[in-house]
Amino acid sequence: MVFVVRDERSGTCWITESLPDIPDPTQRADAWKTRVAENGQPGWHSTAEIMSLPDGTAALLGTDESGTGAMGFVIGDVQFGIIGERITPQQVVGIAGELAAAAAVSPTPATS
Question: What is this structure's pTM?
Fold first, then answer.
């Protein structure tokens, strides 16, 4: 499922919900650590950082060369993704925190 949000500050933002790409939390954490270790390597045009949302949910924050942010995180059986055309990493973190809080109150059933 994809939600499209338009905002003057961040332009168009896409928020996705899906089944997790990597369902096992340990394997997902390992994959994220591998991605972070690739920061600065030839061929990568973005950086990655593992962080925690305000509720403690682990999230992978990516920032491209232009400073645009993107984030992925999993709550229960639902993977959320946030990307945008001009969205800053700080805006991504704010949106992710709001989504995580909303998901804790009203979890969305996963669909494929």
Answer: 0.83
2-105: which CATH number, 2.40.50, 3.40.1000, 2.60.40, 1.10.3470?
A: 3.40.1000
Which one, of 24, 26, 20, 94, lies nearest residue 61 by Cα? 94
H or E segment to which residue 88 belongs? none
Q: Is 67 left (phi over 0), alpha (psi -120 to 50) or beta?
A: left
pLDDT digits (tens, 9 = 90+) for 4-44: 988 787 788 899 999 999 999 999 999 999 999 999 899 88
Residue found under tokens 């924050």: 61
